[in-house]
Each structure stands twice: as structure tokens, then as C-alpha cells.
Amino acid sequence: MIRDQIARPAPDADPGFGVYVHWPFCLSKCPYCDFNSHVRGAAIDEERYLTAFRAEIAHRATLAPGRTVASVFFGGGTPSLMRPQTVQGVLDAIAAKWRLDPDAEITLEANPTSVEAGRFRGYRAAGVNRLSIGVQSLSDAALKALGRKHTVDEAIAAVKLAASLFPRFTFDLIYARPGQSEAEWRSELSRALDFVGDHVSLYQLTIEPDTIFERLRDTGKLQLPDEDLALALFAATRELTEARGLPAYEVSNHARPGGESRHNLIYWRYGEYAGVGPGAHGRLATAKGRFAQETERHPEMWLTQVETEGHGLVENTALSREEQGDEFLLMGLRLREGIDPRRFERLSGREIDRDRVKSLVEDGFIELDARGRLRVTPMGAPLLDTVVADVAA
To answer: Is the pLDDT of residue 9 over 70?
Structure first.
């Protein structure tokens, strides 16, 4: 039965092509953050950076010509520190080098401080049609502990303003914080869901390398919930979002039908995307194969490299078939829809181990749907990394 099911899934549609634009600057560094973000005391020369973005976009277009851009995502850092004119300039450059789909999803990440919220109208006029707001918590004490500069009232005001200006919006919350109980999280999440549009991202706090939180944990000054409580918080998250019509379509992302992040689906469905800006990553398919790309992380060094070489790439490596298969599993099994095993076999040049799949199905960690797609079960979702490693072995 397992063998028959794996053999007959429907083929996947084209995941599409996206552009990721990284703005690396923040007002301050959050203690949990390991993203490529930098604090600068002096004003940023946005005209100079815009010129460099244009050059990088032109360079990527020579590597991936003729694409139709289905989504653009401004991430960071804090893109809402950019002037709306800079955002408009980047979008104009993308449209000049590729075809920008009239229905393209254009997302910009924003922090909900009063100053940044005042720019929302400018971003909408520039062409942004989806705002992603870093709310993180509806507790002022928790926001302070997380190093955030906004208050709960500012966050709610920003979400309401986004709802009035943008066709779509989303926001993030962090849970499994030090000292947080299940009852407290249920109350906080229930309140937050009253403000949700078609999407919300809910992340368990994890300790990342080289962060302030890592140093605090290692010195015994920060203690996260134990494994049992973390699992209870995860289960509560799924329960409450399902009840509000926002099921998890990915491990940490929840949406109403049709409200999924189109840009992130390109990543998770192993599509093609160009990354521009300091520390941006990309995956481009060329006649020579699929390439993993990464740009210089340090903003000023990236700027200098782009100005002298026409691009900021420091990595442009052809991926082996085995690496492509592993990446496909790692990304695709995050999704509730799962993966088409035949695509894994086309990418990797080898079959998924049927006996291993059978064992994981019997243990309740993965399942095969009626179309033969392989997906992680709710029981397997909290153990995703282990399940993926087992399938890939």
C-alpha cells in the first residue's frame, strides 16, 4: 500500500519566482535576533543604497532573464525605516528588469512604533499591498524583555491602521517566553486573534547562536519553558487558531484559505528567488543548474562591492542533486500540504526510502494523503527537524 501511494501523486504546479530585498538596519538589536541587522548612529544614505539595489537587480536579471515576478518581499532589519520613495525606487527597478505580475504580492516588514506607522500610507502609495508587522507580544513587560521599542497600544494601533490601508496584512507573535504559562499564552493569543486579518505568524522562542539571549541562557539568567510546557503551548496555538478559521499551513504560519504568504510559499515549495541587499540569499535556476547565492553581510562592505563589481555576491554555488533533494525535503515538509515524492526523486536522482516512510507512518509522524503526497502529521510537527532528517537519510 505504501509503495502504491507513493507512486501516484499529482504533479506540483510551478512554485513561481520571487525577489527578496534585504534592508539591514534597525534602531536597536533585539536580544533574541540572529538576523543580519545592524544599528547605525548616523543617517543612512538611502540614495546610495537605492543605486546599489538597482545594480544588484540588474545583475540578477542577467542571471535569470525573462522571469515573471510573483512576489517581492522587503525584509530586514527594519524595512519600515526606509523612505517610501526608496521602496518605490526598488519596485520600479524590479519592474524594469523583469515582468512584475499585475497581481504580485508586495510585502514589507514593519515595526509598530508611532514614527514607522506614520509611513504606512507612503508604502501603500509606493505599491506595497501586504504589511507584515512585528508585534511580538501583547504584554508590555514581555515587549521590554524582548528588547522591543513599542508598546502594546502602539502595536494594536499599527495593526488597525494596516487593516484600513492595505488589502492584506499579517503580524508576528513570539511565545514560549521565559516564565510564560499556558493560561497566559491562551489569553494573549485569544486577544491577538481578534485583530487578525487573513494571516498570522506564531513563533516559539528559540535561542539562536551569538545572541544576547544565548549568553543569558548559558550563564543561567534565562530559562525557557521545559519540553512538556513547550509542547502544550504548541498544541494550544494549533487549537486556538483552528477554532478561528486560521489553520497552520506551515509550522509557524496560519492563514485563512487563500491568505497564505505567496512569497514564503515560493521558498517552501522550492521555487526560484533572487536575493538582493546585504546578507540576502537566493536560489536561481540556470542552464548550468540550480545555484545557491548569498551576498556580503556587512552593509558598507556590500555597498562598496556592488559599486566596484556590480553585485554583492560572495557565494554563487551550484547545488548537487543530493543537496537539492535535501533542501526540498527541509522546506517542503514544513508545509501542511507536504511534498510530491516524485519531485524529490527528479531533483535528487534517488527514491525516498519506502521502508523508512512506512516506519514513520506506522509511528504516526508522517502520513500519505489520497494523492500520494507525503506530509508531517500534527504529532510529527513539533519534531520536524528529526522527521526530515529521518526521511532524508
So the answer is: no
pLDDT of residue 221: 85
| Among the listed residues 188, 187, 141, 192, the one whose alpha carbon sits nearest the alpha carbon of residue 171 | 192
**How far apart are the C-alpha atoms of 85 and 82, rounded to whole Å?**
8
In this structure, the dihedral spanned by the alpha carbons of residues 91, 334, 111 and 292, taken in order and rounded to 10 degrees, is -50
CB 336 within 8 A of CB 248: yes
For CA atoms 351, 356, 359, 364, give the dihedral sign: negative
CA distance 49 to 40: 14
The percentage of the chain sitting over the pLDDT mark of 70, rounded to a whole number, equals 97
Query: At a CB cut-off of 8 Å and minimum separation 6, what does 227 contact?
Result: none
Query: For residue 77, is the peptide bond before it cis, meaning its omega torsion is within 30 degrees of 0?
Result: yes
Mean pLDDT, residues 195-214: 91
* Whole-number Å distance between alpha carbons of 380 and 275: 31
pLDDT tens for residues 300-338? 999 999 999 999 999 999 999 999 999 999 999 999 999
Strand 366-368 with 374-376, pairing: antiparallel
Output the pTM of the full model: 0.93
CA angle centred on 334, ends 187 and 352, rounded to 5°: 150
